[in-house]
Recover the amino acids of this structure.
């Protein structure tokens, strides 16, 4: 353990990695602070770059970028009442109330401090829980992995906000896309329409870029509102911050715990954590009437919650290879690209890499305070970057990113096709994240399924013949029943109303 | 383009059915029970079922118009912007190697900024260093060769 830990410090504190972390952090701050650009899209844009890096800087870039973006989303929420990312939407009104009261910097001070605290807490939970869970998971074999995969996919499909059926359709679309190309089991080519480029399958990077970034670009180029935000003069955000934090220490702690747990739940991420925590804070508050008037309590609790969800989301990601949210779904894709399949074995095979992830998380959350201060001071300039400039740079980044993976123009066309698909899905309220998960996990699920079927000689009972496999299968069943029930209940409500 | 519930459901059913036909036509492997089409055919059946669910679920609700175009399609300026966006990506996919990255990126950064209301001089001043920055980042830092295209003799 000690050797691996030392090696991990060596990886993270290498000048190259530190530089990557710093650049990714700045990028995350920028993307998070610009309304409309989300942490997920930032991760999608970063993937092509990480492709050419060593594993540690690649993962570190994603960790640092996402942590910063989730915090930075609070900045426009507080200053102009537009949440920078969906994770800040829950308390945008509250944060803006501070600005209306003439205390914008006090509100943002609370945001940056609780974000950092939440991030560190989520990381601590990750450090404590992940290795324990991994020990438990080392005895797993293909049926367990099949069911774990099923559990992850089911959660991703059904835990999305909105119709579970649409989540399922999205997931299936992803799985179908994953089956394009040469089938690993039989070596036959499937659904390639005679194209040699499709033999290798649909590449993760152009698919990701297209599905997540193109719909956002469409939104950017079609919106007519070019707001020139009025940002008040900076007057200092650290005065009184210690008092605020101490006063609201219990809500902050509660936000940490709830955020971490929600993050660890597959399919639910930072935005849901913030909504739940804000609602909970209001419910348990002694002064719920003050909420929405620039009251620190809910802001502190939810601000801590969304950042702690990030760390929590990594627990199922590294231990089982089941992503906790959309960002970790992308992370899994990157890990697989790097030849490191997530799962309990990763703790034995590359412990230094896992420790490096832990260290990066801590480092990023500490860096958040000084960088956050810089970005808050520069908010006036960042918020006045015109939409045209943002759209133009993102478009070029998307095109070059999809091209660079295989030096192939075909992939750029693929990105466009996936963009059209992603846009159509968004228009019809079909969530995109399950499709990404299906695309990433598709081959793994199919492989484990076929392998178990061959081992069991076609007996479906082989899939539940081992006790743990049966338990996970029962969980999957529960998720499906829950989804069916909520679907039916939702329809009943719609029919009544 | 937004479809109403039953229409979206039918589209999913049709997609699932097409996939099922394609999966069943995939050849099996002698001596092996599960051919390449086995897993996709399961997905196809699931798609058909999910699509049917959407049709049934959509029927019991108030029906919207069959097809609702997005609001920006009524705005010619915004529609042209989307066409420009698609055209730019398609252009690079079709002729990126002949045009080359730097000329292409300068063109895109300039055109899109200008189109979205940034004065041409300012757009140009941002576009040229922006394109060079992308080029340096990929070619020097990440060591990815980008197509030189029109600038082949100079790079």
């Amino acid at each position: 353990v000690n050797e691996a830990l030392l090696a991990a410090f060596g990886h993270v504190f290498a000048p190259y990695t530190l530089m990557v972390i710093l650049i990714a952090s700045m990028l995350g701050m920028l993307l998070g602070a610009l309304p409309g650009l989300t942490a997920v899209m930032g991760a999608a844009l970063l993937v092509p770059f990480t492709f050419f890096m060593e594993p540690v800087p690649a993962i570190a870039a994603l960790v640092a970028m996402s942590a910063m973006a989730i915090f930075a989303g609070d900045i426009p929420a507080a200053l102009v009442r537009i949440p920078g990312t969906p994770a800040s939407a829950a308390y945008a009104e509250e944060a803006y109330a501070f600005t209306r009261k003439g205390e914008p910097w006090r509100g943002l001070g609370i945001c940056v401090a609780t974000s950092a605290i939440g991030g560190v807490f989520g990381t601590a939970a990750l450090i404590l829980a992940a290795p324990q869970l991994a020990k438990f998971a080392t005895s797993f074999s293909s049926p367990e992995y099949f069911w774990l995969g099923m559990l992850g996919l089911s959660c991703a499909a059904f835990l999305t906000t909105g119709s579970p059926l649409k989540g399922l359709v999205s997931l299936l679309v992803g799985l179908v896309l994953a089956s394009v190309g040469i089938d690993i089991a039989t070596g036959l080519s499937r659904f390639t329409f005679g194209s040699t480029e499709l033999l290798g399958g649909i590449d993760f990077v152009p698919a990701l870029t297209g599905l997540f970034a193109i719909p956002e670009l469409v939104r950017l180029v079609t919106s007519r509102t070019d707001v020139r935000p009025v940002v008040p003069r900076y007057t200092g955000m650290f005065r009184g911050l210690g008092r605020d934090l101490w006063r609201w220490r219990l809500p902050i702690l509660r936000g940490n715990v709830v955020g971490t747990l929600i993050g660890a739940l597959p399919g639910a991420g930072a935005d849901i954590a913030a909504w739940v925590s804000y609602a909970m804070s209001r419910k348990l508050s002694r002064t719920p009437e003050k909420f929405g008037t620039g009251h620190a309590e809910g802001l502190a609790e939810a601000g801590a919650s969304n950042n702690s969800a990030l760390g929590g989301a990594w627990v199922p990601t590294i231990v089982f290879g089941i992503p906790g949210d959309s960002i970790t779904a992308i992370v899994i894709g990157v890990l697989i690209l790097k030849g490191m399949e997530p799962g309990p074995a990763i703790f034995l095979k590359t412990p230094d890499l896992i420790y490096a992830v832990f260290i990066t998380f801590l480092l990023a959350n500490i860096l958040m305070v000084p960088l956050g201060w810089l970005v808050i001071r520069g908010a006036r300039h960042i918020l006045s970057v015109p939409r045209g400039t943002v759209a133009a740079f993102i478009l070029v980044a998307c095109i070059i990113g999809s091209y660079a993976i295989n030096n192939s123009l075909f992939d750029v066309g693929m990105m466009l096709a996936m963009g059209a698909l992603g846009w159509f899905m968004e228009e019809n309220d079909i969530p995109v994240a399950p499709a990404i998960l299906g695309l990433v996990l598709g081959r793994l699920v199919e492989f484990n399924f076929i392998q178990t079927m061959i081992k069991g000689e076609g007996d479906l009972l082989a899939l539940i013949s081992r006790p743990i496999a049966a338990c996970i299968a029962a969980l999957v069943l529960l998720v499906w029943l829950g989804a069916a029930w909520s679907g039916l209940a939702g329809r009943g409500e719609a029919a009544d109303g | 383009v937004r479809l109403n519930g039953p229409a979206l459901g039918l589209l999913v059913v049709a997609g699932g059915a097409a996939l099922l036909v394609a999966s069943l036509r995939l050849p099996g492997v002698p001596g092996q029970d599960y051919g390449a089409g086995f897993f996709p055919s399961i997905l196809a059946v699931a798609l058909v079922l999910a699509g049917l669910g959407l049709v049934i679920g959509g029927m019991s609700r108030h029906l919207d118009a069959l097809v609702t175009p997005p609001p920006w399609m009524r705005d010619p300026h915004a529609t042209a912007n989307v066409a420009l966006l698609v055209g730019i990506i398609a252009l690079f996919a079709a002729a990126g190697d002949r045009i080359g990255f730097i000329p292409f990126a300068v063109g895109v950064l300039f055109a899109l900024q200008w189109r979205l209301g940034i004065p041409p001089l300012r757009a140009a001043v941002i576009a040229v260093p922006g394109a060079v920055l992308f080029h340096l980042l990929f070619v020097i830092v990440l060591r990815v060769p980008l197509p030189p295209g029109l600038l082949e003799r100079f790079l």
Notes: The two ends of chain B are 44 Å apart (CA to CA). Chain B has a mean pLDDT of 89. The beta strands of chain B are 2-3, 67-68. DSSP finds five helices and two strands in chain B.
